[in-house]
Amino acid sequence: MLSERRLQVLRAIVQDYVGTEEPVGSKALTERHNLGVSPATVRNDMAALEDEGFIAQPHTSAGRIPTDKGYRLFVDKLAGVKPMTAPERRAIQNFLDGAVDLDDVVARTVRLLAQLTRQVAVVQYPSLTRSTVRHVELLALAPARLMLVLITDTGRVEQRMVDCPAPFGEASLADLRARLNSRVAGRRFSDVPRLVEDLADAFENEDRGTVTTVLSTLLETLVEENEERLMIGGTANLTRFGHDFPLVIRPVLEALEEQVVLLKLLGEAGDSGMTVRIGHENAYEGLNSTSVVSVGYGSGGEAVAKLGVVGPTRMDYPGTMGAVRAVARYVGQILAES
Amino acid sequence: MLSERRLQVLRAIVQDYVGTEEPVGSKALTERHNLGVSPATVRNDMAALEDEGFIAQPHTSAGRIPTDKGYRLFVDKLAGVKPMTAPERRAIQNFLDGAVDLDDVVARTVRLLAQLTRQVAVVQYPSLTRSTVRHVELLALAPARLMLVLITDTGRVEQRMVDCPAPFGEASLADLRARLNSRVAGRRFSDVPRLVEDLADAFENEDRGTVTTVLSTLLETLVEENEERLMIGGTANLTRFGHDFPLVIRPVLEALEEQVVLLKLLGEAGDSGMTVRIGHENAYEGLNSTSVVSVGYGSGGEAVAKLGVVGPTRMDYPGTMGAVRAVARYVGQILAES
DNA sequence: CCTGGCACTCTTCGCATCCGAGTGCCAGCG
DNA sequence: CGCTGGCACTCGGATGCGAAGAGTGCCAGG
């Protein structure tokens, strides 16, 4: 078990290292923090912390830097979430308030988060399955070609082409449209499959094929793979990563381009509350030298999607967590209003 | 005026430098290319080329590297466009053929282009104003809230919320929808403003406000700033940029995040044929050490948007141009089919 | 006009050296 | 028992020097 002072030493090491980006030694520590003990004592504490795996030396005769395990302890026990200042809150609100539609909200959020944290921001669009249906529309583009448009309460609009097996009359179309909406409008998307399963039964034989096709397209839209979208920004911040650019930055950029990887990353994060994944805690290898701070956001009490940032393990955790949390809250509010 | 051989020397310098990324000297040149003259002669030629500003020395006693002006001459006079091989063509076609909707087409195109050229790919969505209206739909989400959906022949779908000044009945809505479509369906977007300007006159006083609002929203959608979208990819390729990472890569990433900058960049490029902008020819300062190769693409003979790549000035121009041209052609085909 | 030769310029690299930061350990003190 | 000052030690990074090598410019001769 680590004594109180050793925890303080660890905290001091993390803070200094995050600030200076350089290994921190015992002398510098005692000078910059009021630990009330001498460097020699701190050295003993550091040796103990190193034995436990919380810190490490890049080389003999260099200072110590925190390990992933050290950051983990820091985040869990030694540091809270730094709240945003009042001006910062106002700035966030002002910035987000101008958004005109969902795309705009997400785009602004990404920008904001990237600026606040000076890291790479990732914002997921509201998940379809966790949203509520506002409206389903069917348009006939051609006699045997329909367009299916889904609109959610969170402002998402998805469209799909549907090629019908046979021409589909305007009357049947109106009928289907009305029946569809009466069944699913106002309901959760996750309930949609159940609500529409017997809808084809109500139609004549010749139209049944088309109705079935429309319904299966509708359901396809809700399949995991397709329904998730996200936006990233602030990649220019990667250049402030460290001195050993290419090798670190490369896999990160690759990961960011693979939406699948990112979605999995966000998906693995806890469903409620803020999640911090540090270095090797990330399953994806390319992100082993980064930390991911993410949190769910939503219009009501419930999360409809996640957002977060990706940055070097050496990041200002309290500040980053504060920014991420604050942004998530305001985005939730904006969505609730629209 | 430069003699034929001097041009050959320049061509050889460009080719070697692009291959090795290192300044090339007179001796290496005579060894790798059959110039039929001695290094000393080549040195004289190089001195002349340097006087003319086509090549430069990083330091005294280093080899030469091409300047922007040198690349320009190379592209204009010394090198053609390298056509894709048959297998490459097939690969392109296969890769693009699987796309299910416009987003998918664009996403696949970006990926493909990034992979083929190993550079950053930029693909603009088909411009609204240059497309044809396929359908305009109006949905009543609430009594005084409409959604306007625009569908183009290129598969683009744009939606906008419209808050009406007064509730708008279903009958009026159907009327407006029908009138709108009969006027604009099949017409070019650029003609839409003219075609709808007197549409409000046909409605009762109480509905006229709403109709006007709808029309102005429709027109807003076509405004330059909003109508253009683009997608980028392959940013991981930036890591192969050169040895002097951070300083070069940073502004490029920043430029790529500013869609406005990119759109302007593509917009400045010639409207027909392939455009190559080399280094300082790019108006945006952050891209002064990059070259942009872009070309229009379209479903018919006419370009509806542009695509291209951004890479180091030291790039394989013939190969890159070949890839860009080939991809643009196939994308045009795909769009024409859908 | 081309060529071989030659002197000159710089950059790069290896090597030896020095300096300092930081450590671990120990003996002594409260 | 824990803290402290002292001390020897290690090692990385900076500095300086010299040799090597690549490449150039220029010149005289074919």
TrEMBL record, chains A, B:
Q: Which Pfam families match?
A: HrcA
Which keywords are on file for this protein? Answer: Repressor, Stress response, Transcription, Transcription regulation
Locate the Heat-inducible transcription repressor HrcA C-terminal domain: which residues?
103-321
Q: Which domain of life is it from?
A: Bacteria
Membership in a protein family: Belongs to the HrcA family.
Report the function annotation for this chain. Answer: Negative regulator of class I heat shock genes (grpE-dnaK-dnaJ and groELS operons). Prevents heat-shock induction of these operons.
* Protein's recorded name: Heat-inducible transcription repressor HrcA
